[in-house]
Amino acid sequence: MRLLRRISTRQLIALTATIIAVAAGATAIAMAASNGGPKPDPKPLPVAVHDALTAPELKGVSARIQFTNHLIDSSSVQGKDPILTGASGRLWASNDGHLRLELQGSGNGGATSDTQVLADRKQVTVYDSGTNTVYRADLPAGDDATDQTKSDGPPSLAQVRKAISRAMEHANLSGATPSDVAGQPAYTVRITPKHDGGLLGAAEVAWDAIHGSPLRAAIYASGDSSPVIELKVTDISYGPVSSSVFDVTPPADAKVTNLSPASHGGADHKGEAPVTGLNAVQQQTSFQITAPQTLAGLPKNEVRLIQTGNDAGALVTYGQGLGGIAVLEQPADAKSATSAGGDQGQLQLPKVRINGVQGDELDTALGTLLRFQRGGVQYTVVGSVPPAAAEAAARDL
Q1: CB 25 within 8 A of CB 232
Q2: What backbone torsions phi and psi does residue 134 show, to the nearest 5 degrees?
Q3: pTM for the whole thing?
Q4: pLDDT tens figures, 327-358
Q5: What is the residue extent of each domain of the chain?
Q6: pLDDT tens across 16-48, in order?
Q7: So what CATH class is 2-258?
Q8: 198: Cβ–Cβ under 8 A, 6 or more apart, which residues?
Q9: Which is the CATH superfamily of the domain at 278-396?
């Protein structure tokens, strides 16, 4: 959670969008090529998913892609940042776990701003040429259980049916709809929240009907027929990819930001039970926790200790599901960024007044994030709710 205190607003948005892009792109390794074949024959969803999971693996893939990002209103973004505004680009992946995602946006006067995303099984690196900044994050290491699962092979059809049944307890899943994505026969599934989904309307995933890998991933805001975030393949070929494709080195003078959590002396905290409850958490924080019984009409759900090195904070949640609101409370310091004005001119956020204190508000199609400081405490209010709801919650604190 130290990252939430020191990362700028633009970095937070860029990291979120990049994670979505990497998650969708990393699975493209098994994409198939065809000459614009027809839509596939209809199949029950469990069968289509099982066929995808048992499809033969390819050695590599090269593709042209289109990344769409309408999370933030265009009036809030200056210039053409590929991650913030969307862009076309290319993707390469190999069966040894390497991925390269290249997005290119045109700026003022015809200038270009490139974003390179490089990933292997150990680390993700993002280079933003517009700001000459490198962001690095370590990926979780595998364990024996994961390796054993891989050696056991893909799940059976019965296991797939069981997993889908569990998923349908929380979400509505369409059938495997025969589709045509980038000229490839594909199946598309639409997923909608069964309970309160906040501003999230739906998600869609399309995968190759022959070789099983995703060709498109999209997220929709409630009431919107166009995707808010979408990564889709527009052209594709497959086969081995030269290792030199992944040898991309940022300039030596680039600013490097490490987004990985700091190590705490190598101690393993997996077995420790979380500290919850207002009284228990209050005993370990240096500030008075603000946790009213209700916030913006939502009942208090949980108070949880957030430990970040030498500092201790509190995460207080209200309501249930995606329609809930979370409040992160941490000691403020001189380095805490409460304004996006230092985000190198890329983002202009509205200022809001919270009980006489100025704060910054990030309004997106899927939710709102609001930050302000008061009495030596930094408050971050976030939820898949409209700005008015987030502001009401902040004023109740």
Answers
A1: no
A2: -110, 130
A3: 0.71
A4: 999 988 755 544 434 444 455 677 899 999 99
A5: 2-258, 278-396
A6: 444 444 444 444 443 333 344 579 999 999 999
A7: mainly beta
A8: 222, 321, 322, 323, 324, 366, 367, 383, 384, 385
A9: MucB/RseB, C-terminal domain (3.30.200.100)
